[in-house]
Specification:
alpha+beta, 7-stranded antiparallel β-sheet, 3 helices, 7 strands
Length: 133
């Protein structure tokens, strides 16, 4: 298991490569909801971020968990390499938080996402990192 705040150089490099990831949230009935997303990883802050529209099912699942947030996992893989980050997700709507997350996304994925006035940030306070990189 990697240290979320002090990952190995290989683990961090893998999270800086351009890969589509998955986000797993739990629906109110407890069943998993898994969707493709872009993820940015900030080990210094111990945070991963996903930008998305505020009306999505993933956001609704996180909000349904209450103010403490929801347990989630983000994962990426490429051939035999994989990495998962787990933690507690909350929704951020502040314009500066959204702008920062968009900037991080644009840097990792080498493209600026289209304008979305409903955009929010799923911010994941990380407590576990797994992988084989």
């Amino acid at each position: 298991m990697a240290d979320v705040r002090n990952p190995t150089p290989e683990y961090l490099a893998f999270w800086r490569e351009r890969h589509v990831c998955t986000l797993t949230t739990l629906r109110p009935d407890g069943t998993p909801h898994v969707v493709p997303v872009g993820v940015t990883y900030d080990p210094e802050a111990g945070v991963a971020r996903v930008i998305t529209g505020g009306g999505t099912r993933k956001v609704a699942n996180i909000r349904a968990a209450g103010p403490e947030g929801a347990r989630v996992a983000v994962c990426q893989m490429h051939k035999a390499r994989w990495a998962t980050l787990e933690g507690r997700a909350t929704i951020r709507t502040e314009p500066e938080a959204v702008a920062d997350a968009v900037s991080r996304y644009a840097e990792r994925y080498e493209r600026t996402p289209r304008h979305n006035p409903e955009r929010v940030v799923i911010e994941i306070a990380l407590d576990r990192a797994l992988g084989n990189v």
